């Protein structure tokens, strides 16, 4: 199905069994909760989805299972995070064959490509698939920044349509709007600056804590879109301690623990990741417990 770059799109976690295989039953349970909350798309195989540990076959299984489960209710995106251009093209073509609606795409992995190499990488993949592409711009975690000048060149490819803006600099939303208008759609990618970015003009939110709290996340988006800013702020202020679990090297473990608390997942991760323990686990559980104790009553955000 076609994609509109707007709304809340969960970067979903990948569920595993105790024997380290894909847990599609729990995965689909979470996807169902996302759909019931009113999300606008599903993003597979991102950082939060433990992309670096998934085989190509597992990514294809997840894509097909999700496309089947959502049944054209929302678009399904798969992340492209590869070490070579050849592998990225192959992954993009597999995604298209498996029914994905669009791609989220990181710069080359491991090798710190220069500006010209990064632009060539994105353009080459774009020229070998018909799927729309959202460039994942996260220099904080991946050490490569896609600058506005680089986007000037990238936007010569019609299929490069959006950016997952994860620089942590909210003013970058305004820079992008000033430079490109509506040609480059902006999906904010950092939970702790999401509302600020939406208010400055981002069209949507690739979210993390939505995996455990889908209704609250969608409510914030819909309220601010309807101009009910103060209500959105109040929920966002409650949410912030939980959202901060997303800007941490252990974000996968943190969010999976939150999913357990809300009945939407397990904390099983794929090694070398290990479940949280000791004081670190105690702290995260305390944040989650406090959030659940003070969980807000939501307005009828689906009918604003």
UniProtKB/TrEMBL annotation:
SMART domains: DHDPS (SM01130). The keyword Lyase applies. InterPro entries: Aldolase_TIM (IPR013785), DapA-like (IPR002220). Keywords: Lyase. The lineage of its organism: Bacteria, Pseudomonadati, Bacteroidota, Flavobacteriia, Flavobacteriales. This is Dihydrodipicolinate synthase family protein. Pfam families: DHDPS. Belongs to the DapA family.
